[in-house]
Amino acid sequence: MPKNGAMATVGQWIEGARPRTLPNAVAPVVAGVGLATALDTFSWSRSLLALLVSLSLIVGVNFANDYSDGIRGTDEHRVGPLRLVGSKTAKPKAVLTAALTSLGLAGVLGLVLVAVSGHWWLLIMGALCIIGAWFYTGGKKPYGYYGFGEIAVFVFFGLAGVLGTVYVQAGHVSWAALGCAVAVGCFSTGVLTANNLRDIPTDIESGKRTLAVRLGDKGTRRFYLGLITAPFVVSVLLGVWHPLLLLGLLTAPLLRSSVKAVSGGKTGRELIPALRDTGLAMLAWAVLTTVGFALL
What we know:
Blueprint: H1 10-16, H2 22-38, H3 44-72, H4 92-117, H5 122-135, H6 149-170, H7 175-198, H8 200-206, H9 211-241, H10 256-263, H11 272-294
Helix pairs in contact: 2-3, 2-6, 2-7, 2-11, 3-4, 3-5, 3-6, 4-5, 5-6, 6-7, 7-9, 7-11, 8-9, 10-11
């Protein structure tokens, strides 16, 4: 591994972008596509733009977190995936450039999407998403260090992601859309909660007061289990309206190992698969629910 800010390899840059978090960006758009299809307003171009915005945003968030945590020294003993700055695999300036480039791309693509849809007020939501991405761990008082990260993930990769995708195509949202947004938001927040559960010991040492640190080990485990239960409650409620929307329930077995790890008291690296499986379950739920909407 390169040290002292040497040139990182392409593979290390890809790992630094944290591809395992991509379901958090894809799932809300997929769910939004299903809802737009049910409303007979689906647009390939607008859906693709929404997906590219979401992907650019999450990659930007990941690189921004890498940079901000790295220069603070809070990543030096991290258990999870490679951190480019913390491991001295890449220079901080290079990671900062990658973060700003990704967030800038999200902004440009978002502007195009807003222009195409004609809903100019969405520029405010886009600006808030980019600001939220940076100040999650950036700035003098990053809100992610004070226990507000989960709220941001729920809002940006749940409510905004799903409802925004529907709105730029249909021009309005529905109660079903709100339900799906809550479900995806809970899944996405579950991914972060599993991550922060794993990092409680190192976050305490570095002074990060994440929600997991505030809730404690047992409280965080209960919180995670509640979050991943919520999407299936949404599926049942949607299924009352139309049985095809019960398809989302078929993804529950994907969470079996995650539930076992979290409820069984696993720690450290033993929790890493829980992040992956929660993300995959979220994506599968979005896909199957979208299929249900498409078949209505």
